[in-house]
Amino acid sequence: MAVRAVKPSPASPHAEQVLLAMDSARQRTLAMVAPLTDSQLECVHSSIMSPLVWDLGHIAAYEDLWIAHRLGGLELLRPELAQLYDAFETPRAVRGEIEALAPEQARSYMAQVRARTAAVAGRDDAQDSVIWEMVLRHELQHCETMRQTMAIAGLLSAAEQAAIDEPFDGVPGERWLQIPAGTFAMGADGQHFSYDNERPQHPVDVGAFAIAHRPVSNASWLHFSEGGGYERREWWSDEGWAWKEEYDITHHRSVATGHPQAPVSHVSWFEADAFARAHNARLPTEIEWERATTWSHETAAPLEALGRVWEWTASHFSGYPGFEPYPYREYSQVFFGEHYRVLRGSSWATDPRVASLTFRNWDLPQRRQIFAGVRLVKEEA
């Protein structure tokens, strides 16, 4: 495919708006890594996470693939980098072993790609709003992933650590919100950008249940741990117990070092499930979680601390009735099945543009790198 000469021209109102948001996101991305040394950017801080510099190159390669190449019809700026920065072709386990761009090279690549993006934005034949928004949110989501890596490495800023340790408002204590049985419309309504796994919106019947007003705190989790939570076999699933025993799992270090009245974080699904059983409760299904959050927004008794931590659900990740992959099946469809559990909500590190009550996150049940916590459910308060 020949490279098409592109003359910059005024962007459409939509493209101009998204470009401004993309530039703002890029400034925040670069500011986030600015205090880090090249060694910190290139280091493998965890076997399940990418070197931070790989994420920078991946952000640029994804943008060039979808905007300049697929929308604009241009050849890739650096075709030799396509496989290296493809998340499926180059899995996390090998990203620290390959020869990727150095930090300054990655920053330069990001800048060059953004210049091509700005040029394509001025073309009438490249105004697919879904693709533009997807690319913007891709960078925003990777910034949260990078903060997960930085948390593992102890590289978060003081301000970010303060956001994690901010205590709940009000008096500590267990309170429950009773959600009545009913039918509600689950999923994105199509009026705004949404991912394929949030669609189509469909009616769902749900029975009555009670949900905790707020997520579990560090203090409650420490009490669980010190009370034998990691020793009482009856509270653990077979798979969870095997994982705990094999890796000698106990509570995450942040439980003891964080503010007692801040939401517990870095909790795996296995641990969340065990904690719920120990308290004669359970994890909400994905249906119950969305029903509770959308219903409480219509009442005078909203759930507290939404957006502080991701919240595990009991549900496996799968498509809604009538699901159709778009714009590519690798975004979510390849993860459907019995392996992944759904998390809902958002965390302190999630950009507001990404966070919504229909957004679906997912991960393996043994993972603890996500800023994930627990909100319990009972049949009745």
Task: Give a written overview of the molecule.
This protein is of the alpha+beta class and 381 residues long. It has 2 domains: 13-156, dinb family like domain (Four Helix Bundle (Hemerythrin (Met), subunit A), Up-down Bundle); 163-378, Alpha-Beta Complex (paralog of FGE (formylglycine-generating enzyme)). Helix content is 38%, strand content 10%. It is built from 11 helices and 9 strands. It has helices at 13-33, 38-42, 52-71, 103-120, 129-153, 158-165, 218-229, 238-247, 253-257, 269-278, 286-296; strands at residues 176-179, 182-186, 202-206, 209-212, 310-316, 341-345, 360-363, 372-373, 377-378. Strands 7-6-5-8 form a 4-stranded mixed sheet. Strands 1-4-9 form a 3-stranded antiparallel sheet, covered by helices on one side. Helix 1 (13-33) packs parallel to helix 5 (129-153), helix 3 (52-71) runs parallel beside helix 4 and helix 3 packs antiparallel against helix 5. It is globular and about 60 Å long. The N and C termini lie far apart (64 Å).
